[in-house]
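Q: What does the assembled structure look like for these inputs?
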Amino acid sequence: VRAAMAGWARAVRGLLLDVSGVLYDSGADGGVPIAGSAEAVRRIKASGLKLRFCTNETQATREKFVKKLQGLGFDISVAEVTAPAPAACSILKERGLRPHLLVHNDLLPEFAEIDKTNPNCVVIGDAAENFTYANLNEAFRVLIGMEKPVLISLGKGRYYKETDGLKLDVGAYMKALEYACDVQAEVVGKPSKRFFESALAEMGLPPEQ
Amino acid sequence: VRAAMAGWARAVRGLLLDVSGVLYDSGADGGVPIAGSAEAVRRIKASGLKLRFCTNETQATREKFVKKLQGLGFDISVAEVTAPAPAACSILKERGLRPHLLVHNDLLPEFAEIDKTNPNCVVIGDAAENFTYANLNEAFRVLIGMEKPVLISLGKGRYYKETDGLKLDVGAYMKALEYACDVQAEVVGKPSKRFFESALAEMGLPPEQ
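A:
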């Protein structure tokens, strides 16, 4: 086993790191770093390995997310982060899709460059307080009004924990819209294969490395 | 065909009638009767056939629902109505279940006699404006906190139309909770077999009549 591991380690030229729950524990106060993780990031970078941070964070722009992590002591920059919203933006551009957005207010700047007039798809993220009865009905009406509804979901998490308790995640609301419109959402973000592939492409490495 | 129909008609001793969309069209103003339907109800009753009204209405008590239909000119009484909430109440009593309710305020009186302390199940109806982010998280926490979550849904409709547009129905929110908790809801109301059977039992007739 050790020989196989050593062989594997020699082939590896880059790492994808999860963030929430791996580098830090989130919370209403901004969260706390997990012991040793900031040092681990420094050592990976010093070793010459390529590194990308791969997150399903959709409650904030990468800028805000990175600023928080820098404040917790991490050596991280916006250019090193792969996140669902920018991945969705590249899909929207590629396919000429104009989204109706049901996302967190703090995520809106990620879609600033995207044409949102006369929507021909719905993009749903972890909208949190924006998951109101009115907003869900509105997103539903946009979808059901399409000849062939296109629903893009920034993740498919079931729920997550915050300091004040468990919260339903984007996956639950995605299922509600899927059922109402009899469609299947296209999931951007982990564990979608395309999401990991785009992170690798950004590192310039093939999967086996 | 005519002979077969005549034979079938001779065997029939009772009828189950749908209400919304059959006897009247609903709307914010209370709705309008469908032409000829009030007269049809009178003729069925005059013919000596047994009659029950079978509805998936979960936004109001039977009392309120019947009062509205009487106002529209229908010969109908509370004792003639089979609806999901009372059907759910008989299941709750039978199984010793104490519900956490996520339902419309106007439906609450139907559950007045039910013990709701220390809940061991969740009952979801078309809660409309009560489908808030906070209320959905609360219902979810009650469910996920159970060793074996029990979710009872007063219907599984996808959506319906009101005068101000389409609205997501209880089925969509049921799917959200099902996914988040990895459970399957027990659906009370049409098209559940048990629901129709209880309507027949209330009429005192077997299915073939």
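Chain B has a mean pLDDT of 92.
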